[in-house]
Amino acid sequence: MKFTVKSEHPASVKTGCVILGVFERRKLSEPANRFDKTTRGLLARLLADGDMDGKSGQTLLVHHPHGAKCERVLLVGCGKAADFNKRVFGQAVASATLAVNASGASDAVSYLAELEVKGSDQYHCIRAHVELTQSALYKPDELKSKKDHASRPLRRMAVNVAKNDMNIAHTAVADGHAIAGGVELARSLGDLPANICTPSHLAKTARDLATTSTRLKASVLDEPAMKKLGMGALLSVSRGSEEPAKLISLEYSGGNKGGKPVVLVGKGVTFDSGGISIKPSAAMDEMKYDMCGAASVLGTLKACSEMALPINVVGVIPATENLPDGLASKPGDIVTSMSGQTIEVLNTDAEGRLILCDALTWSEKFNPAVVIDIATLTGACVIALGSHAAGLLSNDDKLAGALLAAGEAAGDRAWQMPLWEDYQPQLDSNFADMANIGGREAGTITAACFLSRFTTKYHWAHLDIAGVAWKGGKEKGATGRPVSLLTQFLLDRAGGR
Ligand code: BES
Ligand code: MN
Ligand code: ZN
User: Fold this and answer.
1) Ion ligand 3 — residues with CB < 5 Å
2) Which one of 96, 163, 267, 283 has the minimum C-beta count within 10 Å?
3) Could you tell me the pTM of the whole model?
4) pLDDT surpassing 90 at residue 150
């Protein structure tokens, strides 16, 4: 998809389709009014005839509007003008994109970003438009022998803005395009099945990314190297599988040499069967998504590199399968982590924290400014927050605040939970320094408590993305979250726009 910026009258722009907003009930938006002045009230008549009343998500396609230069005009419902916020804006952009894509128009000019969106500014509106348009057209059909694409798909989209906003619009479109590319990478990796998206495949993806820029460098540790480093917790998970584990690092050097990096650690369990504490078989296929933290790290680094952000970022990905092979960990086994702390593995399905703890210790070597781990860590987080917000826990309130704000600005929200000492005793073990599970209560918090014992040397935050990384059911598929949040966070650290 190609995106551009325009500043033209909607009736005189030559395009396959002009996209205009309509508010409830039957109110033309300002750009639609501008259009209608030249088309002698064509749109107003359509609304008066009852063809459309402006409900969010509605669309109406009109061909060859008399008096205008476009081949089609698409009216898009935007709901009540007073309630037009980021969420409704997103719905309008997504339904407009799908309708244009199905219309036969190969290019379009959208006037939706000119509308005032509650709680957002011009830059974020335009950027979100680009992200949402690209996202709406994503199809996980890499492995289908016959693609079900539109016969004449949408190829070019221009976002129209006021003359004064042209500069900021160019930046927003470029950023939106970079982030959309990162989101798309995260989604396609997530949607790949576990027999293809193995730890080695993730490593290859990191290496391939590194060839796209001199500022990116990938390195991969194999199991013997991890053994030498004493990563007994990580290796205890991969022992249950034939597929070799990998510890992937992808360094982006956009900032000063020696400048402390932001380290992003992504959980890369390419399939989580639960191991000997095996999961029930219903919906177990969805555990191919247990590497979405890793995918979001790769997507974020791709976006960073394309935006040429003037900061240093390191992606660290512990990648493994969790399977019940003959050598698999057994409940009650005690393993020694790289930090020297011992762990009683009471449940082999709490494997994410076992691979993360060694990756977090390993991350010390990068002398990080902050470390953020991203993981599909607990089913409890899905129960607590559903699919709308990622869980956020941190040992540093300033860092937590910055992540919450970034999520809010990017439309990719997180919600903070407490990391109080009170919860720590739930991890007590009679036989080791700690157990790997903390019982039924507060599962998301005790998982973070576990990780907090390996992050005492730096500022750290944990994003539990179990509820937001993918959708189940009929719309099954990866979302690419939280690439948008993370990229916004890095953009803010780099000085913002
Ligand atoms: N990958 C899962 C978490 C998960 C489950 C994410 C369902 C999304 C949907 C993780 O490895 C896991 O199995 N966690 C256990 C922890 C428990 C054994 C303490 C869980 O949440 O049940
Ligand atoms: Mn598990
Ligand atoms: Zn898991």
Assistant:
1) 269, 272, 290, 352
2) 163
3) 0.98
4) no
